Amino acid sequence: xxxxxxxxxxxxxxxxxxxxxxxxxxxxxxxxxxxxxxxxxxxxxxxxxxxxxxxxxxxxxxxxxxxxxxxxxxxxxxxxxxxxxxxxxxxxxxxxxxxxxxxxxxxxxxxxxxxxxxxxxxxxxxxxxxxxxxxxxxxxxxxxxxxxxxxxxxxxxxxxxxxxxxxxxxxxxxxxxxxxxxxxxxxxxxxxxxxxxxxxxxxxxxxxxxxxxxxxxxxxxxxxxxxxxxxxxxxxxxxxxxxxxxxxxxxxxxxxxxxxxxxxxxxxxxxxxxxxxxxxxxxxxxxxxxxxxxxxxxxxxxxxxxxxxxxxxxxxxxxxxxxxxxxxxxxxxxxxxxxxxxxxxxxxxxxxxxxxxxxxxxxxxxxxxxxxxxxxxxxxxxxxxxxxxxxxxxxxxxxxxxxxxxxxxxxxxxxxxxxxxxxxxxxxxxxxxxxxxxxxxxxxxxxxxxxxxxxxxxxxx
Length: 461
Ligand code: ARG
Description:
- This protein is mainly α.
- It has 21 helices and 6 strands.
- The protein has a two-stranded antiparallel sheet. A two-stranded parallel sheet has the order 3-4.
- The structure holds arginine.
């Protein structure tokens, strides 16, 4: 039979396959709270403007509150014949309160309705994600404060480069995640305009008050152009792109956890709570959570790409293509929330093996740059010359199977006669670390200060 919401001119119902491709209730039920919230604001405005009566508005409010309760308690029957969440709720409302329910859709279209619901939903998710993100940043900052002076090898090309501290490494991620946080907040500011009242595409002839619904729903203002309001999803794309960048950061951290847990590195140990065993190899402790956190970017960046392709080339205004905006956004949201929480769990769980980190930080000629810097600072040699001399000393130490600070002064002087005993003062790991006091550098005292600054900032939030 024809659709009860729009089937006036229809004699026949849809083909089964039409129904299947058309219905979105299977996923957009997740917008139910926002849909009811939007309808309550719309009805209040209609009554205030005398477009519907006060009695109707009261009946609508009561009906919608009951529906919310039915959905919350699992009693509500979602019906695929009613396509989407908007018509499921509206149909139930009319069923409950009759005529008044049928007046709710005055001066409104599903086009402005869904755009409003979706913005409300995303706004709430941004707030959840930012909270969870802050909590991860707090965990990282706490661990960073704990290990502000703990040496570890810093890598470039995954080759030992210079000593750094573990705290400094962890705080690098706090900086990245903080930028992710601000990116989401920037997007939140732009999405916080209310499409309601744009109606199908052209606005409405009813004397509505768009500022009122915008305020009731916590938006900063109504959107300025009715066509734009119902036909763009750039706010969702911006959200997904911010999530993709965040997932990329989390993926790098996850990868480092995987590397750090590996037997040859053994920089950290994850407890039984965050590893799994192998069904065949009894010795294994696999960092599955980290690997999955590394992989989630696939879904998240995939979601961004999906929606970008859906929107590409769509003529104004609304087209049903846009119903495909929700699943990628839901999927990406679920994936990032899970990843953030698992990551926080691992960061709090990990036990660093500071001996192993120290050992690797002092091997691999990690203080070679300090030697070259000493030649420049004390002997006033040009850096390129110093680099060359140091290279020869590294090669000599390598041949003898020694660390740089184990070479004798005679060995050193064979390459550069002006070298004195003083050179050994810069070759130790501790001296190297302590000397990196330039702004943003890895010296333990810098790192302690930075960790404290993050801790007070994050705790104040
Ligand atoms: N379920 C639809 C969506 O998600 C609601 C808007 C439908 N509007 C329309 N004119 N068919 O986009």
